[in-house]
Amino acid sequence: MRTLCASTLIGEAFVIGLAGLVAMNLSGYASGTVWAVCGSAMALCVLLCGLVTRPGGVAVGWVLQAALVASGLVIPMMFFLGASFAGLWWAAVHFGRRIDEFKRRAEQPAATTA
Question: Which residues contact residue 5 at a Cβ distance below 8 angstroms, ignoring those fewer than 6 apart?
Fold first, then answer.
């Protein structure tokens, strides 16, 4: 699960950075405000890559996805991108857990019958 979620979060960090460039020019907010918000979100994405397997890590990821969708209030295209990343996040968590469970079962020694 960690690899899939981390890949999604790194991609999301890049999109947030690019959205910051757009917001700086189109939103009417001060550049410092835009970069404080975008920089914090990007740092959270990178930090969450290492914390996603810890208790509450996936929940924090969902909060981040909700915030990304809500950023569509500033840049309307982010509604679409945020929803896309929320879908990717769901897939990473869902299929990552299934892969982890499959690996756990494969690592268990087969029951030997004599």
Answer: 48, 49, 52, 58, 61, 89, 92, 93, 96
